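Build the 3D complex.
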Amino acid sequence: MQMPMHAAFRTIAVMAAMLMAAAAHGAPDAASAQLLKSTSDHSKFKVLQQDFQSGPEVTKACLSCHTEAARQLQLTQHWKWEFLNPDGRRLGKKNVINNFCTSVASNYAYCTTCHIGYGWKDDQFDFTAQENVDCLICHDTTGNYRKPSGFAGNVVTRDTEFPPGSGKVVKALKLRPIAQEVAKTSRDNCGACHFFGGGGDGVKHGDLDSSLASPDKALDVHMDATGNNFACATCHMTEGHQVPGSRYAPTAVDKGGAHLRGKERTGNPTTCQSCHGQAPHKANLAKLNDHTDKVACQTCHIPAYARGGIATKMAWDWSTAGRMGPDGKPLVKTDAKGRVIYTAAKGHFVLAENVVPEYAWFNGKVTYTLLGDRIEKSDQPTRINHFEGSASDGKSTIWPVKVFRGKQAYDPVNQTLAVLHMAGNDDTAFWTNFNWEKAVAAGMASVGAPFSGQVDFVSTESMWPITHMVAPAQSALKCRDCHASDGRLEKVSGIYIPGRGSDHATWLDGIGWALAALALFGALAHGSGRIFVSRRRT
Amino acid sequence: MARVYIFKRFERFWHWAQAALVVALLLTGFEVHGSYRLLGWERAASLHTSAAWLLIGLWLFAIFWHFTTGEWKQYIPTTEKVFAMLKYYLVGIFSDAPHPFRVTRLSKHNPLQRLAYLLVKVCINPLIWVSGLLYLYYNELGATVFAGPGLGAIALVHTAAAFLMLAFLIAHAYLATTGHTPLAHVKAMITGWEDLDDEPAHEPTRSHT
Amino acid sequence: MTKTVSPACAVSLCLLGVALHAIGAHAADGDWKRGRVYYQKVCTDCHGAKAGGAIAPNSRSIKDWTAYLSADRHARGKDALKKYVSREYRASIKGVNKAAEKYADVPDEQLFNDIRSFMLKGAKDGDSPASCT
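Done.
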């Protein structure tokens, strides 16, 4: 406490006054304002009153009471970074190749900064060791816990020069005060990784960035820090550490009702319907309820993403990476707003804020192009992942999506996507020597995949569901945003949208207007004739 | 000049209310269709629905009225004088020839009117009502019954009927000026009294039968 | 609500890869998250566009902020910072400011302490330097 004396005295005086007032009224107002909601004050636990030297030491202390926690976590995608798709293919962060920084493989020490574990530095990581589970990354409330990039998800408890020989020092973290303040997860915890997906703030998702740490109502009606103040877990209702609502297992259409307390719950608790039910609009807007069979709630209620003042990446061209400036140093370019749009390490980016989503039928199935799948360079971009669905399958609704367009390295001879060795203090990492052939060779070797030795670049597309940043009702889409030609749903096929010109039978409109015109001209001609003869008579 | 009381109070009310609603429905309907922007899609759609319900209500009254008063017989088609009427509109009207048909209380529509109104009542209106109600209750019908292009087909019929109605409205509005003075018919539709020109007024004849 | 905070000035925490300086400020000092909301939605509401530009917590050091808070000279001494944290002030703006409305009944000292926690933590040499972007 660094409070001046007079302020301290005033605090005491105020508190004393409040206590007296409370006693006088017989109501514990002041006391309830201070009520600790948890039944435990972790700072009072002996096991947490030690100067921890590493993350796993803290975890051991946690597990001494929370005996099942690590086992629960080790069942999750958060731990495994692996997901078995219904089509039998192995997905998850560990396996997929995306069109951002492409792959975790061969870049573990950097990517696993965001793993909920300690020490995943290569493919030999021990997934069964309970002390490797990182409790603090999700349960820190001080906002001070962090795991620097390049340390394989470990915390740094001694001042450390990194990269070695660089002269830059990563300062030590004191784990004791953090361990003593643990509590339920908050947006800051989840955001520590999920706001920064793709390698920076807001880069990957567009509907998740650090503006959601403390948003206002206009940005998100649910997370509004001055209102509902939802934590992520309010919707991603977690039991036994199993967090529902992964994009790998999406619920595109929820036909269930609102989840009531006391009722057996089986469905996905993260859907809009799980709270709002099937007919959320009031009677005077009842027609809107008729839309829910074809249109996902998000389509109208998230009019744009990246609305919090933080730009998201819309496109990434790796093929131009590696350029040096006139000074011989890696080139960096910024736009008028000072945002980085080119780096030698990563190539060109397209950034955008307040982005209107694209829209697609989505039935919950997502197909992926994985390492080893044959790809062809053509006019059509390779689909890194693709949302399946159609107007006619009876299982799809129209969803807002972010389509992220990339140009990334592939092997033109074997016709496969490439695993890139990007980061590392070695001769083959792209970010060290800007040599694609070496980086791909090292990357492919790390996963035992064949590599022809040639590198070319292929256009790719990935799709990301837009489901956060739900706007207040008055900012939802208006009818004519879609019920019009060139509206938001112009490219969504298989459905008749009243008001959309491309749905019109042009022959009918042609005949119809011709008929009306004929009637009008007939009347005018006939009438002129009558006027003419009557004038002549008089 | 003889005067005949042709249109009763309900009939006049029905006519003008219907006219207003049909114009409103056409205006809003083609905006919903996407032909132009006038009121904004949302307002157009909601006005269209409200006007449709009013018109349905009005029609229920009108049907009841027609059957209880026997006025439905006014729409029984006849071929008598159809060609005379056609000839009058095409030729006679320009040479001030006498109107081949005399309006009476029992026969207030000329043969062409009878045919046209009957066509509106048995073809265009049912098409509009049925397709319109299907349009409105598409969701309640269940996506399985009208899956995929279902709404498109319903909309197609509804739009086609709307074009027919539009053409009728234009022709009807023009033909309303073909009385012995341009406003004679309109006046009659407002006051109920039709002025007959000074031709010797015989006993009213039934044009049909 | 008619008043909204410029999203460009939603103070975000630089969560990863930031140099650390553990000063041992204990979270029990104040609720930094509540302080953050008040700072962003009330303080920044004026300081962003009007009133002398943005006031990112990381624009000052812990020492600077501590001195500023204990001197309590707002607007170069024209008035006191405590005034803008007081219940009276919150009551006066609660019709147009949702943060003021939400925290209408928080005792002055407590809220002041919350804000202090956020500012010291977000100072340029604090545990989590907080910028204004």
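The longest helix of chain A spans residues 506-537.
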